[in-house]
Amino acid sequence: MEAEELTIDRYLSAGESVLVVDDIKEQRDLATFMLKRMGYQVDAVASGEEAVQYIRKTPVDILVLDMIMEPDMDGLDTYRQILAIAPGQKAIIASGFSESERVLEAQRLGAGPYIKKPYRMEQIGMALREQLVAAPTDDPPEFLVHD
């Protein structure tokens, strides 16, 4: 049985907008370069606080969210604050560290696949496509439900 070849058209953008959130400039630049090559409209910020401010002004289709950011909010705290502004916000998680309880918690809140850095273009491309085509969740996360 032949291994299925992964062609670039399987993970190209359909014109969606992406916000890359990463405290390391080289990582932001690399992700931005890859995503633009796949046809995404890309912007990037260096902190969770910047991401929250960005989302307040400019909605995006999906986030690429680093989990470990210094010195302020990590990816989970950032995602929680963004969900309070934009319920149902789609995201994927990228980290140089192994999958943690905080990654799993972000996924319980609605974030999609976790990809380990350094990632290849097809890895980030497939993770984005998977999350973008997933049905949106109708139920808001528990922390957003007010009785």
Would you write up a description of this structure?
The protein contains five helices and five strands. The chain has a single domain, classed as Response regulator (Rossmann fold, 3-Layer(aba) Sandwich). The radius of gyration is 15 Å and the shape is globular. The protein has helices at 25-37, 48-57, 75-85, 101-108, 121-133, and strands spanning 17-21, 41-45, 62-66, 90-95, 114-116. Helices cover 37% and strands 16% of the residues. It is an alpha/beta fold. The N and C termini lie far apart (55 Å). The protein has a five-stranded parallel β-sheet with strand order 2-1-3-4-5.
Name the features:
globular; alpha/beta; 5-stranded parallel β-sheet; 5 strands; 16% strand; 147 residues; disordered C terminus; Rossmann fold
Q: Assign a percent range to the helix content.
A: 25-40%
Strand tally is 5
CATH C-level = Alpha Beta
Strand order of the largest sheet: 2-1-3-4-5
Query: Distance N terminus to C terminus?
Result: 55 Å
Roughly what fraction of the amino acids lie in strands?
Answer: 15-25%
**CATH homology superfamily:** Response regulator
Structural class: alpha/beta
Outline:
It contains 5 helices and 5 strands; from the N terminus they run βαβαβαβαβα. By secondary structure, it is α/β, with parallel strands linked by helices.
Question: Mind sketching the topology for me?
Answer:
Blueprint: E1 17-21, H1 25-37, E2 41-45, H2 48-57, E3 62-66, H3 75-85, E4 90-95, H4 101-108, E5 114-116, H5 121-133
Parallel strand pairs: 1-2, 1-3, 3-4, 4-5
